[in-house]
Amino acid sequence: MTQVSMTVNGKAVSGDAEGRTLLVQFLRETLNLTGTHVGCDTSQCGACVVHVNGKAVKSCAIFAAEVEGAEVTTIEGMANADGSLSKVQQAFQDHHGLQCGFCTPGMVMSATALLGENPNPSEAEIRAYLEGNICRCTGYHNIVKSIMAAAGQDTSKIAAE
Amino acid sequence: MYAFDIERPTTIADAAKALSGEAQALGGGQTLIPTLKARLADPGTLVSLSGISEMQGVCMSDAGEVCIGGGTTHATVAAEATAYPALAETASHIGDPAVRNRGTIGGSLANNDPSACYPAAALASGATIITNAREIAADDYFQGMFTTALDEGEIITEVRFPVPEKANYQKFVQPASRFALVGVYVAKYADGVRVAVTGASEEGVFRWTEAEAALTSNFSAEALDGLSVSADGMIGDLHGSADYRAHLVKVMTGRAVSAAA
């Protein structure tokens, strides 16, 4: 066991981690931040996406020790300072961008990263960016619609399916 | 996962020292971590290369080659290797965005997955693989599926790509894994065309020399018309037969030439 320190959602945190402790385990089991989900545990599904130094990464495919000293943002850190939902979160609520909700934390984190890189993505760019986020309810349509809405786009342009 | 220790050196020299025993290097971990989870590896000690700043970034050499640090992520190559657009484009389609933020060029080349994209780019470009010990030409580097010229503990510190006149990579993705079922990288240099194929052969990435000769005299998809690819030694699995992969090699080569021309 070694001590690992990082900043999570703006707060300095530290805790014990083995070499093999994944970031997602550290977040969920040591910090009790269970909003980040483990779907596949084989880095396919994207339910565990968090931001490390502003970049979307799969927290099941990075060790806690590799994040030493980094800034981590999880779904718990997405809401605005006054507790209201972020633009992306609010759009997911408004456009029903979820069905069972299991993939939603990863979807919101990836969508937020996308809009950070590309504030006005096309529908095709949104779908391409979500390649590593799987919704097993297959509810992609409203997820894409939510992200278009969060980007301030006219969602009536998205094809009805 | 079996238990192991992690070391995080900040210099190549310290990493080489840490790797002199039984330790295993960890690049971006996008292949190695799933492998560890499946208990297919028991390294004892992992030496993470992600904290070594001298192994990161994209630059131009005095000889006009694009130089990429071994620890540079796919996302950084996609954004910064603008002097070699086909390479940047290739990097921008590896895995998915989160994987591209972690996976590294050195890790991909060291692993030499038979379906990976970078081995095709490096071989078709006649790249030079620079390690902490020596320089290895791409033609000598790839030695079969998951096998390379690297010695135990040797670290890829940099990869140098001569910039071609024209190049393109065409990947036919396996729809579930999104890895290349077959991928073909075509690069046209002043002294000839090089064609490297990934995903197809049981021997890993290889050069299709007949196509290279035909394309060197006539750089157009029609130049491939009389050629055929043997299915001998091609991978056959539930995603595609050996015959299908052999067929795809020619189709994807033609598409790459058309897109590059």
Offer a concise description of the structure:
The complex is a heterodimer of chains A (161) and B (261). Chain A is of the alpha+beta class and 161 residues long. Chain A contains 5 helices and 5 strands, in the order ββαβββαααα.
How does this model look, in words?
The complex is a heterodimer of chains A (161) and B (261). Chain A has helices spanning 23-30, 87-94, 104-117, 123-129, 140-150; strands spanning 2-8, 11-17, 49-52, 55-58, 71-73. With 161 residues, chain A is an alpha+beta fold. Chain A has a 5-stranded mixed sheet with strand order 2-1-5-3-4, with helices on both faces. In chain A, strand 3 and strand 4 (55-58) form a beta hairpin. Chain B has 261 residues and is an alpha+beta fold. Among the domains of chain B are: 1-48, Uridine Diphospho-n-acetylenolpyruvylglucosamine Reductase, domain 2 (2-Layer Sandwich); 166-260, CO dehydrogenase flavoprotein, C-terminal domain (Enolase-like, domain 1). Chain B contains 10 helices and 12 strands. Chain B has helices at residues 12-18, 32-37, 74-80, 85-91, 97-100, 105-111, 118-124, 138-141, 209-217, 242-260; strands at residues 5-7, 24-26, 45-48, 58-60, 65-69, 128-131, 135-137, 156-162, 166-173, 180-189, 192-198, 206-207. In chain B, the strands form 3 sheets. A 5-stranded antiparallel sheet of chain B has the order 4-5-8-6-7. The longest helix of chain B has 19 residues, at 242-260. The model of chain B has no long low-confidence stretch (mean pLDDT 96). The A-B interface holds A 18-20, 22, 41-43, 46, 49, 52, 55-58, 60-63, 65-66, 68, 110, 113-114, 129, 131-133 and B 1-6, 8, 26, 29-30, 33-34, 36-37, 45-46, 48, 50, 75, 95-99, 101-102, 178.
